[in-house]
């Protein structure tokens, strides 16, 4: 079930990528597909919670499963919010750094989707969480550079407000990938 | 104790409603009563935590009780913050959508207050959490329309900043109602 | 280990204090030392989590240890972010209230560092958490006055955006000190 949730996130990150070059009608259609992916993610999360709450025995600690499912759900929500804001605010052109943010998210999504099936055996996961932590640091640096860029005097205040909300929500998505990786590490350490 | 906390939230949502038509002196007086309601809420939360921490046996899982009390406390905090910001920023007129946000919160507050006594028997709760989830979706749509409205060019940037902070905190209150409903669902599923 | 984490926070709060009077080159150097302190904090947190996850028996409830370590880590992160934003946005002069915010944080840091060694015996902690709760209320009032000051018409919108982000992150640090104090209270009540 975690694998389904993570595959869904890969779909979401690809839609973010598509968004970059899209014109207004294409954006509206991408937002539609994003909303569908987010609903699928909600259903996956709800199914995990339902099974968790109605089971006496769980493969890992309850709170770790809960945390993993919640963080995967958060990633999808943040990605959907980013797309929605771009459409809502009718952003003409995104600053160049946003592409770098989305590339990092796409890479983190792939690694996360590859890692989920390994939860069964808990092997070969060390590289995954080290790499996601590295990607989060990279995302953080891109985000701070973007903030400096937004405030360099070229944008008016209204534009800064709109764009800052978008780059902040993409940064929150990167943080949520790190939460997933940290929870996977917690599970692996407990079982070892 | 949860019922007392939820009744307090109903009081808070009625004060939000009163705020809409009030002039400056009336607003200051509403803010005063809101602060009193928030302090009463803090005392209720503290009493729940104290009893929880000093009991060996609890009716539901500890973390669910903790989560329920925290989310009820959050709702009150967000509502108090909204009133405080309106007074602090000396907002002349709130955009029309804010009234809709507050109506949704008032409806969610009523439903939550009605649901709390059912925690004893855990029956008749399904409709409550479905309806609160529906209300949160509605709040989300109102919030996004409000953001688009704030950025449509009629407001200057400083005004956008002030109003955005207020509509965001009301949206956080709506999210917190959903957390309460989700926790109630979790408790009910575990016990069934 | 909690004591090491709290001592690190005292270091951080002193760096915040130094920042106030510093010119641009001195600020860059303070940011460097802050980053080092934050990395040391990360290592301390990671060591606590690792030991927690690989131990069968823990002195207090697992979730309380986890919450304590996370909140201490959050404080450091928020303080580092504040310094980083001052450098990033090249802020010429901080509003006067920021000094008051930092003084409250420095006092809370001292009290927290003094309290941590008492976790062993759990005595003499009541005064600590009452005082930190009082400091958080004070921080809240300073923060709200700062917001009113930022919006009083003297600053342009871009400047408001930059400064608001900084005073908000310092307020988040004050909130995180309160979370630490609340967790210490929870532990003490459970053991009594």
Automatic annotation (TrEMBL), chains A, B, C:
Gene3D superfamilies: Phosphate transport system protein phou homolog 2, domain 2. It comes from the Bacteria. InterPro entries: PhoU-like_sf (IPR038078), Put_Phosphate_transp_reg (IPR018445), UPF0111_domain (IPR052912). Belongs to the UPF0111 family. This is Phosphate transport regulator. It comes from Streptomyces roseochromogenus subsp. oscitans DS 12.976.
